[in-house]
Amino acid sequence: MSFQRTLLALTAVALLVWAQGCDRTINLVDDGSSEGMPLSCAECHDSSDQITGKATQWAESAHGMGDAYVRGTRSSCAGCHSGSAFVEMLAAGLDPGSVDDGDPEPTRQDCRTCHMIHETFTGTDFGLRTEEPVDFYAMDGVTFDGGEGNLCVNCHQPRRVIPDAVSGVISGISLHWGPHHGPQSAMLLGVGGGPGVTGSLSGHYGAAENTCVTCHMGEGRNHTFEPDEETCERCHPDATDFDYNGVQTEIDSLGNDLGALLLAAGLINENSEDGHPIVTEAPENQAIALWNWLYVAHEDQSLGVHNADYARALLQDGITRMGGTTP
Ligand code: HEC
Ligand code: HEC
Ligand code: HEC
Ligand code: HEC
Ligand code: HEC
Ligand code: HEC
Fold this sequence. Notes:
- The protein is mainly alpha-helical.
- The protein contains 15 helices and four strands.
- Strands 1-2 form a two-stranded antiparallel sheet. The chain has a two-stranded antiparallel ribbon with strand order 3-4.
- A hairpin with a 7-residue loop joins strand 1 (134-135) and strand 2 (143-144).
- Helix 14 (284-300) runs antiparallel to helix 15.
- The longest helix is centred in the C-terminal third of the chain and has 18 residues, at 247-264.
- One heme C binds at residues 62-63, 66-69, 80-81, 83, 86, 109, 113-114, 151-152, 154-156, 212-213, 216, 225.
C-alpha cells in the first residue's frame, strides 16, 4: 500500500469517526483498493481525469510552478499571490486592497484556491470559489461581469490607476509603476489606460461567455491556462493562429516604436526589458505614454487579442505624446 493510499484510508477512517453522529451507513473495507472508500471520496479520487489529469496540466502552468506566490507574505500582495490567503480573503468579504495580514506560509494558486475541495467531501466540491461579478477595488464604479472568468478577475485586475498631474508633472513613478501585472480584465473592459483615450468593451467581453475561462481553458477545461487556437476557430473560422488579422504583429510593432521613444527620452534604459522605469517623475505627456506602454506592452501580454482597438489606441496616443508619428 503506497503512502498516499495509507493517508487516504486514514483520512477516510478519521472522517468516519467524525461522521458517526449521522445515520449514514458507509462500508469501509481496507482492502487497499478504492472500492472500500466512502462513495463521496471515490467520486473524485477514483478518476484520474479529475485529479491527476488536471494536476498534471496545472503543474506546468504559472499557477503551478511560478515563484510569485512567495510575495504572499506581504499583506498588500497576499490576497492575489497566496492561494490560501485568497480563500480567507473571499470568506471574510475583503478585496486584495484591504487584506490586513500577510500569509506566513503562502501557497501557489492550487486546486483549493479555485475549487471548494474537501468542504463537503462530495463531487460538488469542484464548484468554483466564486463567480460573483468583481468591483475593481482600484477604480471607482467599474465592475467586471464575465461568467466563470469572474473567478480569475479577483486577482487579474489592476492595482493602481495613473495619478493626476500636478503643475504638468506626474510624480510617484517607481520601478514597479503601471497598473500591475494582471490587468487583463481592465483591457477587456477598455479601461485602465492614461487619460486621453476613451476605450470601449472588447468584442470578447460579450461574445466569449465565460471570458477568461472560455479562451484560456477551452472546452476541455485545460488547466495549463494557455489559450488554444481551436477555441479561436469557433468564432473566427479563418484564424490560423493568435495573430488574427495581423493584430499581434501590429501591436508588437507599435509597442516597439513607443519603447524606442521612451528609451530616447531617458524614461527607461536598455536593461528595462521588464519595463522598469528609471525616473521618479516626468512631464505629463511622457508619463502617460510610459503608463500606456507598461500596460499594453508589458502587463496585458496578449498583444491586442484582449481588446485590439483599445490596445492600438493607447499605444498610438503614447507615440503622439512622445512626438512620434504613427503609421
Ligand atoms: C471534489 C473532489 C474530492 C472529493 C469528493 C474528495 N477529495 Fe480528496 N482531494 C481532492 C483534490 C483535488 C485533492 C488535491 C490533489 C492535489 O493537490 O493534487 C485531494 C487531496 C486529498 C488527500 C491528500 C492530502 C491533501 O489534503 O492534499 C487526501 C488524503 C484526500 N484527498 C482524502 C480524501 C477523502 C478521505 C475523501 C472523502 C472523505 C476525499 N478526499 C474526497 C478532491 C476530492
Ligand atoms: C488567487 C489569485 C489568482 C486567481 C484566482 C487566478 N490567477 Fe492567474 N495568476 C495569478 C498569479 C499570482 C500569477 C503569477 C504566478 C507566478 O508567476 O508565479 C498568475 C498567472 C497566470 C497566467 C500566466 C501568466 C504568465 O505570465 O505566463 C495565466 C495565463 C493566468 N494566470 C490565467 C488565469 C485564469 C484564466 C484564471 C481563472 C481561471 C486565473 N488566472 C485565476 C493569480 C491568480
Ligand atoms: C490584485 C491582485 C494582485 C495584487 C494585490 C498583487 N499582485 Fe502581483 N501579480 C498579480 C497577477 C495576477 C500576476 C500575474 C499576471 C500575469 O503574469 O499576467 C502578478 C504578477 C506579479 C509579478 C511578476 C511575476 C513574474 O514572475 O512574472 C511580481 C513581481 C508581482 N506580481 C509582485 C507583486 C507584489 C510585490 C505585490 C504586493 C506589493 C503584488 N504583486 C500585489 C496580481 C496581484
Ligand atoms: C486558477 C483557478 C483554478 C485552479 C488552480 C484549478 N482549477 Fe479546476 N477549474 C477551474 C475552472 C474555472 C473550471 C471550469 C469551470 C467548471 O467546469 O466548473 C475548472 C474545472 C475543473 C474540473 C471540471 C472539468 C470538467 O471537465 O468539467 C475539474 C475536475 C478540475 N477543475 C480539477 C482541478 C484540480 C484537480 C485542480 C488542482 C490540480 C484544479 N482544478 C485547479 C479553475 C481552476
Ligand atoms: C478571446 C480570447 C481571450 C480572452 C477572452 C482572454 N484571453 Fe488572455 N490571452 C488570449 C491570447 C490569445 C493571449 C496571447 C497568447 C500568446 O500570444 O501566446 C492571451 C494572453 C494572456 C496572458 C499572458 C500569458 C499567456 O497566457 O500568454 C494572461 C495572463 C491572460 N491572457 C489572462 C487573461 C484573463 C485573466 C482574462 C479574463 C479577464 C483573459 N485573459 C481573457 C486570449 C484571451
Ligand atoms: C466566442 C466568440 C469568440 C472567440 C472564442 C474568439 N473571438 Fe475574437 N472576436 C470575437 C468578436 C465578436 C470580435 C469583435 C468583432 C470583430 O472585430 O470581428 C472579435 C475580435 C477579435 C480580434 C480583433 C480583430 C480586429 O481586426 O480588430 C482579434 C485579434 C481576435 N478576435 C482574436 C481572437 C483570438 C486569437 C481568439 C482565440 C484565442 C479569439 N479571438 C476567440 C469573438 C470571438
